[in-house]
Design brief:
Layout lengths: L1 E7 L3 H13 L3 E7 L2 H10 L4 E5 L7 H9 L7 E5 L4 H7 L15 E5 L2 H37 L3 E6 L4 E4 L1 H7 L11 H4 L8 H11 L1 E9 L5 E13 L2 E10 L1 H23 L3 E5 L5 E4 L1 H6 L21 H12 L3 E7 L7 E10 L5 E10 L1 H11 L2 E3 L2 E2 L3 H14 L5 E4 L6 H10 L8 E5 L5 H9 E2 L11 E2 L1 H4 L4 E5 L6 H13 L1 E2 L8 E2 L3 E6 L3 H6 L5 H7 L2 E4 L10 H16 L3 E2 L3 H9 L5 H15 L3 E2 L7 H13 L5 H10 L4 H8 L3 H10 L5
Helix pairs in contact: 1-5, 2-3, 13-14, 20-22, 24-25
Amino acid sequence: MRLTTLIIAPSRESARELAQELRSAGLDPDWQHSTDLDSLNATLAALDIDLILCRTSTPNLDPGTALRAALAHDPPPPVLAVSGTLDAARVHDVIPGGPAGNTLGPEQDGYVCLEDPEDLARAALRAVNESRAREEQRRREKLLKFRHYFMEKAQEAILWVESTGRVFYANQAALGLMGADPGHLPRLNLASLLAAQSAASFPTLWQELAQAGGKTWSERLLTLSGETRDVDISADHLLLEGEECAVVYLRDTTELKRAKTRLEQTLREKQAVFSSMEDGILTVDTDLAVLDHNQALTEVCPMARHIAPGRDLTAPAHKDCPCITALAATLGSREPVRESHVACSAEPHRRLDLTATPLMADEHTFAGAVLLARDVTRLHDLEQRIHGPKGAMGMVGNSPSMLRTFDLLTQVAQLDSLVLLRGESGTGKELAAEALHKASPRASGPLVKVNCSALSENLLESELFGHVKGAFSGAIQDREGRIHAAQSGTLLLDEIGDLSPTVQLKLLRFMESKEYERVGEAAPRQADARIIAATNADLEDRVSRGLFRQDLYYRIKVMTITMPPLRQRPEDIPLLCRHFAAMFAESFAKPIQPPDEEVMRIFLRHHWPGNVRELKHALEHAAILCPAGPLTPDHLPPELLRETTRAGKRRRALNQADITRALNQAGGKKARAARLLGISRATLYRHMERLGMDL
């Protein structure tokens, strides 16, 4: 036996001798040496000691002190005092209070033995074994106390029964359910408590339980007062100290079943009302399982065409349905939930007003939820025709990125600060500049636009600042510049990144002092104009390459607004399509309609390098070719179809990283993530299931 042993002896050689005596008797001590109380406590703190041997001849540490130090630890290791004599006086000197003989009593974990290998080994084994037995007993008693505590505190009724059905333990919940008290326990038998069982049939039930190891069923329980309760029963077959027994768990379902019965009766009484209502009605229980729905719901909500009473609506296929989301919110909060003009996940063009309210079986019993769904598509379309699908300030978009852009434009519009509009070509920087001007205090003044990349350096300088007669060849008369024309208004400098260094310097001076000089004139002039700059260039890169002045760069980036590219806001494509289709229908005097579903799928798959401008021109091309009705793929530009086809052929199989990235960009919304990936939501679910991702 291997023992971690602490040997207290006058010297290490003396300790080694004791260890050798144990080894010669067949034990295997892994020993440490100690000579004083400090080293003893340090070793006890660092190691799990099985046994302490203490020579009575150790001058600085006697066995009694060692025993007291050992008892301060949990669990305390036994202390074995090793002496050359065992007379009574000597024993009392070694460990005060100890009896004569070879032990001081197991309750103290203190022992005395002779300096003899066999006596030493025998005493060591006895001390260690008795100490371990006491520790195991303490552990079992503590475990039993914990088990008894938790069973008594459990809200679920728990019974322990023998194979004959006799109940030998019942917790407080079980006694309450049966209408019993602890005094009834000797007379309780499970066979007589279950309505469907008897003394004759109970052995069959027990045999089924023993063979299966467990059993779950529903039953009616007969209480001692004669009342009948509905219960769900779960039993586990066990062997306890070699005898068969079972742990039986009882869950009282009486009130739940009564509530369901009352609910079913109420629903039958109100079925006629349901059938006559034009609004869709759906009722679910607390587990989101369908109780009933009226016929009108199938007209309002496409999802309702595929459900029936008992259908579980927690399945992933229903996860993004706004109707189910509203019901789930009410079940979770037990409060009404109202949503207006919600887009139907199955038919995005359909708009619904939803009201979900708690369903009460009686005044105090919560039994589920009721959904009232009203189709407001025509009202929504009318509002859209009246007000337009515009998010803010005359711009189209309802995506999160555009809503953030609208917020920034609204905040900046009322200020006179310089604004830098950044973004790819075709994202609407010029439209944003117009929106800023129209919403600003300078709206009554002019908005003057200058394309800095369209003119040479000399012409641009003259265009901006003006010139005097004779300033250069062809300057036959004085001419005011665009800065003068923007007096009390707004000056838009488009593609400002293409300015020459000379013009950059003069423009910086005007921004700082509001002063400028016409070409060929030395007299300074002043102008009061707000400046909005726009660019699709990488200004930071141009600054690092010396193509753009750093001081001008920091001057124009007081407030930067980045217009998001169309590929990052695919949810705005249907809005833009309806907007442009209506615009071209009016412009061309044609009864054309927004694109059909196939065109929308093509648009959602396209990368749109030209952004909104490219989409507008594609729809204009389609509107020219379309005589009437919805725009179809036959009306689209051939190059758009070819590019979409090539992109489809190049598309590789989606992996987990692609899907995770799309879900993060979509804020966890699978419908939007599917649009970002250019696939349907059903296809996204299939890919997630294939990759083992959580649905």
